[in-house]
Amino acid sequence: MQHGPAVRRRKLGAELRALRAGAGLTSGQAARLVGWHQSKVSRIETGASGVKPADVRLLLDAYAVRDAQLRELLLVLAGSEDGGGRDHWWHAYRGVLPPAYRDFISLESQASAMRTLETSVVPGLLQTPEYARAVTRAAVEGLDDERLDALVEVRLARQDVLRAEQPLRLSAVLDEAVLRREIGGPEVMSRQLERLAEAARLPQVRLQVLPFGSGAHIGLTGPFVIFSFSNTSDLDVVVLDHLTSSLYLERKEDLEAYTEAFDALRRHALSPEDSFDFIARCAGISGGASPR
């Protein structure tokens, strides 16, 4: 398990190494092309040292990488604030957001798909403003109103990935506890359940509920997120949240284990259609077309 910056360096290094090999270059040849010592290329490729976005651009140019989406993703992994020209809004909140949260948002903004198990709260991408405020106030003690407002703004801004021209594909398995735990009071929770039912109708969102009656399941070990990228599966990553930090798992065996776990949870859960009906009943909604 790695903290965000370390796993990002290793992933970036592995991808740059593969691109160099694909270009038919040795590390020494690549270093000469960009005017560096060979040891610098080696340190970058092993993740032993960080790399500036400008240096990544030099290497990508040397390797004749023209894929704009791949270039943007690698620049984000390098810590680029412009992502190759794209506005990364969360940098305006640097004074509010811890580094691990900024890492999470940057990966979320570039991912093509997100699979998540939630056992306690509604996924952040589907939260209403009132629900987000109640969750944030409970999770972070001693927040003043200004910082609370900023954190809620960030959570709501993250939801733009579901409305993008090429929206993030979100597949979420929700334990029934997510629907039953009353957060923010009856009115806030009622509106949140209605929001979930609305989201279930979106083509890019797939919601499935794990009812209490389904008994024990592999998700009892805790929530997790799997980010996938259309460019390359080598950049896929599992994120585990803890009270004071987030951990990132990027080894092939870890990704396979969590992917198998998520597939098992989906089989264990209600179908999207039955899950929509379940959510609608919890929200007191009658009628309306169910998803798919």
UniProtKB/TrEMBL annotation:
Source organism, top-level taxon: Bacteria
Stored Pfam families: DUF5753 (PF19054), HTH_31 (PF13560)
Query: By its UniProt entry, which Gene3D superfamilies does this protein fall under?
Result: lambda repressor-like DNA-binding domains
User: InterPro entries recorded for this chain?
Assistant: Cro/C1-type_HTH, DUF5753, Lambda_DNA-bd_dom_sf
Sequence ranges assigned to domain HTH cro/C1-type in this UniProt record:
16-70
Leader sequence residues: none
What PROSITE patterns does its record include? HTH_CROC1
User: What is this protein's record name?
Assistant: Helix-turn-helix domain-containing protein
Specify the species. Answer: Streptomyces anandii
